[in-house]
Write the C-alpha cells for this entry.
Amino acid sequence: MSENCEKMQDKIADYIIGALSQEHHDALNEHIAVCSKCREYMQALKAEKSLLVEFAEKLDAGMETREEEVLQAIKHCNPRERINLLSTCRTIVQSKITKLTVAAALLIAVGYFAGQLISARSPDVQQLQTALETSLKLSLGQTIHQSLLEQVNRDRELALERHYVRLRDELTRQLHHNMSEFAAQTLAASRAVTDQRLAELIRLIEAVRTVDHLQIEMALEQIESYRLQDKTRFGKGLVSLAAQKNKELPNNQQ
Amino acid sequence: MSEHSDENLVVASRAGDNGAYAVLVKRYYKCVFVVCLGMLGSIQDAEDTAQETILKGLINIRDLRDSSQFGSWIIKIAKNHCLNLIRRRKRANELITQKSVPPGQTLIPYKSLQQAIEKLPQETRLPLVMYYFGSESVKEVAEKLNLSRSGVYQRLKTATKELHKLLIKQGEVI
C-alpha cells in the first residue's frame, strides 16, 4: 500500500464517522475514482457501519425486556430494611467511639494479661471474659444508642424533606385553585355590578324623561292658560272699544 | 421542579418508594447498559452488570448527596462495577494459565461483529458503543466521557479501522 493510499484510508475512516471536511472529501473522491483498493476499503467500511447500525437496532429492540427483568428484581428487593441495616452497621463500624471502645477493650485485655504475668499466676479466663463483657457492654451500649439516635434523626430529616416537597406541591396546587376561583368570583361580581349600574342608569334616564314630559305638559297647559287669558282680555278690549265707539257716535251726529 | 424530576424521584426512592425508583430505572437503564457494554464488550456481562448497578443504586441511594445528579451518579457506579469485574477477571486469568471464556449471549447473525467489538481496546470500544448503540451524538459522548470532541472523533476513527482489521482477521468478509 502506497503512502498516499494509507493517508486516503485514514480519510475514508474520517468520512465514515462524518468528520471529513469538504476539501478532503473532493480529494478523496478523486483518489477513489482511480484506486480500486481504496474504493474496496471504503465499501467495506460502509458495509461494516451499516451492520453496526443494524446490530444496534436489534439490541435496542430487546431493551424493554431487559428493563422489565431489572424492574422485577427491584420488586423483590426491600431497600429500606437493607439500607437501614447497612447504614447502621456502617455508622457503628466507622464511629470514632467504636474505635476508641475497641482500643480500650484491647488495652484492658493487655493490662490484665500483663498483671497476670507479673503476679506469676495463671490467667483467670472467666474473670477476663467478665471484665471484657462489662467493658464492651458499657461502651458499645453507648455507641449503639448514639448510632440509633443518629439513624432516627436521619430518617426524620428524610421524612421531613419528603413531606416538605409534598406540602409545597399541595400548597402550589391549592394556590392555583384559589386564584382561579377568585378570578371567576371577581368576574361574576363585576358582571353583576355592571348590570346593576346599567339598570340604575336606565331607571334614571326613564325618571328624567318622565320629569321632562311632565314639565312639557305643564308648559303647554301654562301656554294654553295664557292663550285663554289673552283671548278673554282681547274680547273684553273689543267690547269696551265698541261701547266707547257707540258713545262717541251720537256726539258726532249732534 | 416537576413532580417527576430526578430530584423528586430520588427523594421518594430514599423514603422507600420503589415505584419512584422504577421511573428512574426506565429513564437511565439504557445509558447504564450501553456504558457496561462499552466497557465489558459482552452483552451477557453488560446485562448482569447493569442489573447489579441498578440494585446497588437502590440500596445506596441515601449516599447520593445531590439528588439532581442521579444520572451521573448511577453511571459512575456502573463504571466502577465494570472496572472491578475487569480486575477480577484479570486476576483469575493470571492464576489460571488456560484462559476460558464463558459462553456469553450472542445475536447469531452478528456473532462475528460482536466478537470483534469484544476484542477492541476499552478506550476505543466505549465511545464506539455509546455512539452507535446509545444513539448519542459525538458531543454527548464527549461530555459523558470527559473528552474533547476531537478526542472522541479520533477514538471513533481508530475503532472503525481496528474493527475492520479484526473482521478481516476473523475471516469475515462483509
